[in-house]
TrEMBL record:
SUPFAM superfamilies reported in the protein's UniProt record: UDP-Glycosyltransferase/glycogen phosphorylase
Top-level taxonomic group: Bacteria
Keywords: Transferase
Species annotation: Paenibacillus catalpae
Protein name (database record): Glycosyltransferase involved in cell wall bisynthesis
Length: 340
């Protein structure tokens, strides 16, 4: 199969540190190529992958990026997998899916894919499909021997509930390491900074070996989001490292941890109690096996390939004439003639 993967123009593929969407694009691209499929990747400058062809955006303007894709997309592509949104909205004459890595999908899009059944139900109104994120287990360090600290990993914003992770740490008396990008200074100064000291520390954003070490060595990861989390990649990253992760029943969290309901919490007191009795939580090998059986890059690729084939075989994508894609393509073809 000849597949075009459309990434965003924010972070290269694969990302060095934070970048959930780009990591999904990377894992999917690599796994598809390994299986003998031809993959054409459109991504930000600096991207490195084993895609059959990689085209790096030459502009930061979405309109110019769309034109760039139209000009460079090879013929006979079977399906376009749009993680960005600019292609699906243009309705090209090739089956195209729009993959939201957050919540809703706006615009005139035919085929929508969400990262959880929860988001499909609440924000997609059951119109579309759900395919869970997947990760490569080999990219995560595994250890059974844990150190005596709790870990919060994510963006430092109110919706991620960093202040609640601090509350849990104080209830247990355990050390808490906070790692992530500082996106809201007002929130940080009011709710996080006053609590920093010997027991609670903020180490900034992390990636690579440092991220793997933190995830693998933590006694427990605290996932304290208070918003409708679409999926929660940190959940499976922690489990892949053999580390139990405790989360509130918000958004897709309950869905991701469905097979390990003992990791779901109602309140900070409930979470603190589970931290104190963490020996009752799933063992390291059980955590890693859970990801291998449900959320590996191989399983994610299986599900997308199945969806691709279904769309093509059942002709679920309608080819339209008067579309933005066709209008832009006609203008691009006419441009040299107009100049002559």
């Amino acid at each position: 199969m000849r597949i075009a993967q459309i990434s965003t123009n924010t972070i290269p593929v694969p990302p060095k540190d934070y970048g959930g969407t780009q990591r999904d694009v990377h894992y999917l691209t690599e796994e598809l190529v390994n299986r003998g499929h031809e993959v054409i990747l459109f991504a930000k400058k600096g991207s490195t992958s084993n895609a059959t062809q990689t085209f790096e955006y030459e502009s930061d303007d979405p309109k110019e990026q769309l034109d760039f894709i139209i000009k460079n997309l090879p013929p006979d592509v079977d399906i376009i997998h749009d993680h960005y949104g600019i292609v699906a909205k243009a309705n090209p004459p090739i089956p195209t899916i729009s993959n939201s890595h957050s919540k809703g999908i706006k615009g005139n899009v035919q085929l929508r894919v969400y990262v959880s059944k929860f988001i499909l139900r609440k924000y997609g109104k059951q119109k579309g499909y759900a395919v869970h994120n997947g990760i490569r287990l080999e990219d995560y360090t595994f250890t059974k021997d844990k150190q005596d600290y709790l870990l919060f990993m994510g963006r430092l914003i109110k919706e991620k509930g960093v202040h609640l992770a601090i509350k849990v740490a104080k209830k247990t008396g355990m050390r808490l390491i906070i790692a992530g990008t500082l996106n809201d200074k007002t929130y940080f100064n009011a709710k996080i900074k006053p609590h920093l000291g010997k027991k609670i520390s903020y180490i900034g954003p992390v990636g690579g070996d440092r991220k793997r070490e933190l995830l693998a060595n933590a006694s427990c990861v605290l996932f304290t989001s208070t918003w409708d989390e679409p999926f929660g990649l940190v959940l499976i990253e922690a489990l892949a490292s053999g580390t139990p992760v405790l989360g509130f029943k918000k958004g897709g969290v309950a869905e991701v941890l469905k097979g390990m309901p003992q990791l779901l919490c109602r309140t900070t007191s409930d979470m603190a109690m589970k931290v104190k009795y963490r020996k009752r939580l799933p063992a390291a090998r059980e955590c890693r096996r859970y990801v291998r059986d449900r959320y590996s890059d191989s399983i994610m690729t299986d599900r997308f390939l199945s969806l691709y084939q279904k769309i093509i075989d059942k002709r679920l994508y309608k080819i339209k004439k008067n579309t933005l894609w066709n209008r832009r393509k006609a203008k691009l073809l006419a441009a040299p003639k107009e100049m002559g």
